[in-house]
Write a structure and sequence with these properties.
Length: about 130
């Protein structure tokens, strides 16, 4: 599952980071921020915000861990884990709209989502 915020209709490109490829170390690209902004090294997939596979059609104000705020579209995609990707790998993304590409996003780790079930209600807990 990949969740986040971006401009409506943007193409999101997901990459393995430079840390996975051994060309950088964790923390090297924090640039004075709270999260590491690793560079994309291996292209994994592309998805489009607002497409039929987007499971979240909401919009809201988003503020990241570094205090950057924006009013954008939320997205949620469920994609198969590509071959060779393991838990603990780091991914990053760019968002492109009308030939205007973002910087790489803060890195996120690939992890298992915990599922707690209470009779008829299922809760998904993000670590």
């Amino acid at each position: 599952m990949i969740k986040g915020w971006t401009r409506p209709g943007s193409t999101l490109e997901i990459f393995l980071t430079d840390i996975n490829e051994g060309t950088a170390t964790e923390g090297e690209n924090q640039l004075g921020n709270n999260k590491d902004y690793g560079e994309g090294q291996v292209f994994l997939t592309a998805i489009v915000e607002g497409s039929a596979s987007d499971l979240d059609a909401d919009s809201s104000t988003y503020t990241d861990t570094d205090g950057n705020a924006d009013n954008t579209a939320e997205y949620e995609f469920r994609i198969p884990i590509p071959s060779g990707i393991t838990l603990g790998n780091w991914i990053t993304a760019t968002s492109t709209l009308s030939n205007s590409t973002s910087e790489f996003s803060p890195m996120s780790d690939v992890r298992v989502q915990n599922v707690l079930t209470n009779r008829r209600i299922t809760y998904r807990v993000n670590n």
